[in-house]
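Sorry, explain these C-alpha cells?

***
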Amino acid sequence: MTAHLPRHESVLDAIGRTPLIRLARLGAGLPAPIYLKAEFLNPGMSVKDRAALAMVLAAEESGALRPGGTIVEGTSGNTGIGLAIVAAQRGYRCVVVLPDKTSPDKVAVLRAYGAQVILTPATRPAEHPEQVRNLARGISDRTPGGWLADQYDNPANPHAHVVGTGPEIWQQTQGRITHFVAGIGTGGTISGTGTYLKKVSDGSVRVVGADPRTSVYGGGDGSPYAVEAIGHYVHPETARDVWPLSYDEAVVDRIERIEDRESIEVMHRLAREEGLLVGGSSGTAVAAALRVARDASPDDLVVVIAPDSGRGYLSRYFNEDWLLAMGFRDGDGSGRPAFADRAAAAGPALAIPQRATAAEARARLSDSAGGGDGADGLALVVLDLRDGGSESWAVGDVAGVLPFAALRGLPDDEPIAAHVQPLPQSAGVGENVAEVEERLPREQGWIPVLRDSRIVAVVARTGAPGRSGASPASAGPEKESA
C-alpha cells in the first residue's frame, strides 16, 4: 500500500517535519545509537527555515511587518536564506547583512532568491556601527517599512523549536531520547528544543551543547574560528559582551568544545561514510554526539541536530586547495617539502600586544633569542590583539607584523603600533614550499605559517636572510591569501 504523500500549497508548508537518520557507520561499536535530525532537508537547506518562518508570521500578526515591507537581518547566512525564501513567497523585499568571511556559496544562494546582500567586516567590536547586527539595525531603521528580524533576541526563534523541532523528535523516538545534542549559535535551536524535551521527559533528557574551542559559550577566549554559523566570537575591543536572549544557558547541561579540524574531519566522514553532505557546524555537533554516545549505555538514545547542508561550503570545507592553504592538511600528498617541517624548525611565532613599546618589543625578541645579538635573526613579531600565553593566533586577531629592522633606532618609549606592517601572504603547514614561494611577491621575505587557520610560526623565505642573518625586506602591503 502506498503511503500518503504530502501536498503543499506553498514552499513554506514544506518547512519542518524532517527525518531522523541513524548514523550506522560513524556510530558503529558505540554503546548508544545516534540519530541525526536532518535539518538540511528543509527548503532552504537549514534549520533556520523554522525560525525565519516563525519570526515573520509573528511580526505579521503583531503588525510590525506590513504588506510591501522590507525584511532586514544580520546573519551568518542560513537565517538570511530562510528569510529570503519567506520574503519571496509572501511578497517582501529582503536585505541581508553578512560578515565578509561568509562562504561565497551562501552569498550566491541569497542573491539567487532575490535578496540584497551587504557584506561587512567580520571582526568588528560589538559597539562598532559596521558590526553585523548594528549595521542591520541601522538599515532597518532607515528603510521605510523596514522590519529587523533580530534572530538573536526574537522570542519567536526559540519558540519555533518548542512547538516544532522538540515535539517532532519526541514523537520520532517514541519518547526514548535520552540525550539531545546541538550547536549553539543564536541559541534558539538548542534552547527551544531542549526546553520542550526536558519538560515532556520530566527533566530526564540531557541537553549537550557543541561549541568551537575558542567560542565563549564553552569557556573559550572568543577568538575567531573557522566553522561558520556556530559559537560566539568576541572582538578584543568589545567593551561589554552581551549574549543573545534566544539562548537560555540554563537549559544546557554541559558543553563539548570541538576543535575546527575535528569538525571538518567529521563532516567529511559524514559525506563519505554515511552519504550525508552537511556543513561545518553539523560536523561540530556530530563530533560532540560521538563523545556523548561513547560514554552512554545501550539503553540511551542520542539525537543530534545537523543544522545545514554542505552545499553552502563547497568552496571551503570541501575544497582541498582551501583546506591546504588554511593549514587543515599536513601535506599535499606529493611527499615534497612542506611548511610543517620549516615551522617546527623555526619555533613558535613571537607575539606581543599592539600597545607595546619599542623597548618591550626588543626585550621580547632578546629573551626569545637568549640575549645578545641573536634577536637579529628574528625578523617578525606577530602582534596579538589579545593577551595570554597562546602559541597560535587566529588571523583575524593579528594586527600585522613588525620586522626586527623596524625597531632599530626607535626610542624605548615609542609605541610600536605606528610601525606595524600588514600581514603578508601566508602558507598552510601542508603546502609545498617551492609552490608557495613561487606565488609570493618578490619583496616578501617572511611567511606566516597557518595550522588549522591559526598562525603558528613565521619562517624566512628560501634565499632570504633568516635567523642567522640580517632582517629581510619589508613584507609590503600584501594581504594574507588564506
